[in-house]
Design brief:
mainly alpha, Serine Threonine Protein Phosphatase 5, Tetratricopeptide repeat, 0% strand, elongated
Amino acid sequence: MRLGLAAFLAAPVLLLAGCMATQQDVLDLANQTDELKHQVSELKTAVNSMQGNQADLSVQIKRLQESLTAFGETTRHSEGEMSQLASKIDDLAATITSKVAAIGTTLTTTQAKGLDEQKAALAKQEETLASQMQQVTPTELFQTAEARLAKKSFDLAAKGFGDYLSRFPKGALVDVATFDLGEAYFGLKKWESAGRQFGIYLEKYPKSSLTPSARIKYALCLIHLGKSAAEARQYLESVVEDFPSSPEAKAAAQHLRKLPAAEKTAPAGTTP
């Protein structure tokens, strides 16, 4: 009897609990439905936005394609103009090359003609000079060479004295011309030619007033040539011993002091 009563009392409770559970489920389901609606709304918004962006992107792509097409046409046009310009440059270069070649030919012809004219004029001057030289007296030739030597125009002086000696081997001034030709070579620092000339002078004119100077210059040529310091010393010492009171003796003594010390040797002869 008690068990039946308990069961009878429990039934309403269970029924009430079941009703409460169903109501909660309905509330939860309603909430989930709202959430789903919200998400669907957001999804629609996103889709609409994407569709708008896609439309904008399509417009931009179309504009880009149009720009590329225009650029391609411009490039093709520029290539055509560049091709024409290159062709014009090639034509201009060919024209310039042709003109330069023509100018070069003209210059070569002109230069050759000018050179021939200069050669002819020079030959004529040489003929005139030779003719004038034939009319120059020995004294005039010698004096001209002496004036050039005084001005230290050694090249012209050497030529003048050489001409005098070759044209007038028995002239009155042959001895002086022989010495002065050595002086001109000495001024040109042609030591071998100068030494040979002073040697000739010492051999032909051993008792001349210019003998002391010729000995000194001959010795200096030997020193410059580095051939024989001993022989150079002999000639310098001979000037001091043979012409002790002369200015040349003092000059020879100065040159001797510049030479390396050596044993004293016998005085040199009057010929080299």
